[in-house]
Design brief:
Layout (H helix, E strand, L loop, with lengths): L9 E7 L8 E6 L3 E2 L3 E8 L5 E10 L5 E2 L4 E5 L6 E4 L5 E6 L12 E7 L6 H4 L12 H13 L6
């Protein structure tokens, strides 16, 4: 199991209208200053003993949204639609986004939204940049440890 830090700027507040086309949605409450582009929303099932198993190919990136601060809500409809800014019935600002799926995602009560914060990037071009001072062989203590391990295992087979 992977243990990640808790996201405390956003709260997964509720899922509404599970399994109902055009109204199924996930409600997030903004609890602190947050840049949504740093997050993805996935679907997962609870794992025995804690944590979640994430489903393949069920990920929503919030896009290059700007900063949000409390008391904002972020409402993600699972179906198609257009991004818009609005207000809730209690006049709290809300950002409405759409996952764009052609069917509901949360009709199965065993599935839950899982919010993850992104922590780094790798691309083909970034990975090909020259490394400053590339390592020249193994560090001495690592080399000694590997030599000892190879001896214990009987050395390489010829």
């Amino acid at each position: 199991m992977h243990v990640l830090p808790i996201v405390d700027e956003l709260a997964l507040f509720s899922v509404q209208d599970r399994g109902l086309p055009n109204t199924e949605r996930i409600n997030l409450r903004v609890l602190g200053r947050v840049k949504l582009a740093e997050f993805i929303l996935c679907l997962g099932a609870e794992a025995p003993g804690g944590g979640f198993f994430l489903l393949k190919d069920h990920m929503f990136w919030f896009g290059d949204e700007g900063w949000l601060e409390p008391p904002y809500w972020v409402i993600i409809y699972t179906g198609p639609g257009e991004r818009r800014m609005t207000h809730t019935n209690s006049d709290v600002p809300a950002l409405v986004l759409h996952w764009g799926r052609d069917r509901t995602l949360l009709g199965n009560p065993s599935l839950h939204p899982v919010l993850l914060r992104l922590g780094g990037i790798a691309t083909e071009s970034l990975s090909k940049k020259p490394v400053l001072n590339p390592p020249q062989g193994l560090p001495q203590e690592t080399s000694a440890l590997l030599s000892e391990l190879i001896k214990q295992l009987g050395g390489p087979k010829k």
